[in-house]
Each structure stands twice: as C-alpha cells, then as structure tokens.
Amino acid sequence: MTGNTPILMKSAPVVEQSLSELSSKCSALKEKGITPTMKVILVGDNPASIIYTRNKKRFMEKFGAECEIIKLPSNLSETEFLSKVKAIVDDQSNHGCFVQLPLPKQLSHIDVGELIPPSKDVDGFNKANIMNLFKGEKGESALIPCTPKGIITLCNHYGIELLGKNVVVIGRSLIVGKPMSLLLGNHNATVTMCHSRTQNLKEHTKAADIIVIAIGSAKFLTKEFLNNSKKQYIIDVGMNQDENGKLCGDADYQNIKELVAGITPVPGGVGPMTILSLAQNLLQAAENSL
Ligand code: NAP
C-alpha cells in the first residue's frame, strides 16, 4: 500500500479517470431519452457561492449533463423563496436540485434538505437519504452526501483500506462529520467522532490509522497530533485562508506531509471530489427516474 514516500492524494487523477465513466453513463441515459439535468438554486451574491456553483455547472457540462443556475435576490422573503424552490423541484424536466449554502440570514433557519424530494436530492441532505446511511448504505445506488462519498472514492482510488481501520473524524457537522462517520462505519471502519468538546484529542488522533479533519480551522492538525509510525493517512476537508490569504486546509500540510503515509492537499484534494460525487449523484438520480 505504501513505501516510505508519502502518497499525495490528489483528486485530479481520480476525476480524470471518472470522467469517461460519467460520459458513457450520460450518453447511455441520453439514448434512453433522458438528458441528466440539474438545477442549482443560488440566493444572493456570496462570492464563494458564485464560484462553487459555476465550478459545479462547468463540471456537469463536461460529461454531457445540463445544469442551470437559478439566481434569486438576497432580499427574498421566506414565502417567495419556498414557492420558487417548490416550482423548481416540481418541474419534471430536471433530475436533481440543490440549494447552494449559505443562505441569507432571513432564510438561514430553513432545512433545505427537506425542500428537495429524496429522488432529486443530489446533495444527499434529505432525511430519507440520511436514513439510508443509518441503515447501512454504502453508496452504490443511494444518494449519499457528496463530501463523505468523495472521500470514500478517493480512499478506494489510492488503495487505502478502511475495513477494520481506526478512523478518527474531527468535526460533527451535518454535511461532513456526521455523515462521514456513518459512511465509514458502513465500510467497516471503527470510527471515533471528535468535536470541540472532545477531551484529549491528541490521544485519539495518535491512535488513528486515518484522520479525517473537517473543522474549518487553518493548519490546526500539527505534527503533535500524529504518532511516529509514518503510517497514518490524513484526509483534510478544511477550506480556510492562511495568513497570506491563500487557500489552506485544516492540516498543517507543509510540516506534516513527510510524517504520514498519505495526505490530501488543499486545494486539489477533497474539494473536487465533492463535485465528482455531485455528478455521480445526478446520474444516479436520472437513472432512478427511469
Ligand atoms: P462546521 O459546521 O463549522 O462544523 C465544524 C465542526 O468542527 C464542529 O462539529 C465543531 O465541533 C468542530 N470543531 C471546531 N473546532 C474544533 C476543535 N478545535 N477541535 C475539535 N473539533 C472542532 O463545519 P463544516 O461545514 O463541516 O466544514 C468544516 C470545514 O470543511 C470548513 O473549512 C469548510 O469550508 C470545509 N468544507 C469543505 C468541503 C469540501 O468539499 N472540501 C465541503 C464542506 C465543508 P462542535 O460540534 O463541538 O461545535
């Protein structure tokens, strides 16, 4: 699985390899009269959200799917927002929809996962899809939350065994930490979910075979959190700005990359895997619509 040189777990080769599979699946659906189509609901003009949604649209179009970004004004009332979303999800011409987060303050309490029906829930946030995770779905046909699903794809690509491994997930958010913990359990890992109230976090991380960190704190995971084996894998979900305004992860990448068996870079690691999973979920939703 690894020699002495740490594996730099980049997403690019995985995405490259998956694109041909996505293209042929998309063509097969088109031959059956279905053009996989996604609608993205973007409220307001958050610069990061504009970039994320644009990247997602570009990626969907790369393999032949259609993607429309529906822009709504930031001062939309809750009633207007709900009725717009309803019209979009009820439209039979699309197979997948999602609301780009974050929402403006007046809408931020809304559970967007519940606005999208399970069959079109390409983000995997609807309760019915989360329930599949609880029941033990590993993701072959279900709509699984994108970032956790992408991390499993990345581990598979780089031959990182999950079965029986001790995996520490740091962070327990609804979009990453919690679904990640469930999905890893479904892949037979032994999972410890840590958070801001965890006592002795370093004891947990030192005992881990794999650490997944998703806390949103730049370069938090330093060498003090690792053991001396050089056999640990680090999956860095974080997207932060460093002191120079450059994108960086939750792991102190420069100072730990030689001390581990493998690590995901930021950028170029988990982020693009999330978009790949979204594409896979869209094709799955389109296929399910048959
Ligand atoms: P979030 O909702 O803010 O949750 C952060 C989690 O981290 C919470 O569970 C919190 O614990 C825990 N935490 C915070 N500080 C901690 C500490 N010092 N020690 C241990 N746990 C700590 O975050 P999120 O939405 O999951 O996002 C996390 C990061 O991933 C962000 O940088 C985000 O931008 C990034 N992200 C990237 C992608 C991608 O595709 N690459 C996707 C989603 C998110 P408590 O629950 O106790 O408060």
From TrEMBL:
Q: Which residues form a coiled coil?
A: none
**Which chemical reaction does it catalyze?**
(6R)-5,10-methylene-5,6,7,8-tetrahydrofolate + NADP(+) = (6R)-5,10-methenyltetrahydrofolate + NADPH; (6R)-5,10-methenyltetrahydrofolate + H2O = (6R)-10-formyltetrahydrofolate + H(+)
Documented EC number(s): 1.5.1.5, 3.5.4.9
Q: Which terms in the Gene Ontology molecular function aspect does this entry carry?
A: methenyltetrahydrofolate cyclohydrolase activity; methylenetetrahydrofolate dehydrogenase (NADP+) activity
Q: Name one GO cellular component term.
A: cytosol
Name the pathway it acts in: One-carbon metabolism; tetrahydrofolate interconversion
Q: Per UniProt, which keywords does this protein have?
A: Amino-acid biosynthesis, Histidine biosynthesis, Hydrolase, Methionine biosynthesis, Multifunctional enzyme, NADP, One-carbon metabolism, Oxidoreductase, Purine biosynthesis
The question of whether Oxidoreductase is a record keyword is answered with: yes
Q: Where is the Tetrahydrofolate dehydrogenase/cyclohydrolase catalytic domain?
A: 12-123
Return one Gene Ontology term, BP aspect: L-histidine biosynthetic process
Taking every annotated instance into account, which residue ranges of this chain make up the domain Tetrahydrofolate dehydrogenase/cyclohydrolase NAD(P)-binding?
145-288
Which protein family is it in?
Belongs to the tetrahydrofolate dehydrogenase/cyclohydrolase family.
What job does this protein perform?
A: Catalyzes the oxidation of 5,10-methylenetetrahydrofolate to 5,10-methenyltetrahydrofolate and then the hydrolysis of 5,10-methenyltetrahydrofolate to 10-formyltetrahydrofolate.
Mind telling me what this protein is named?
Bifunctional protein FolD
Specify the species. Answer: Halobacteriovorax marinus
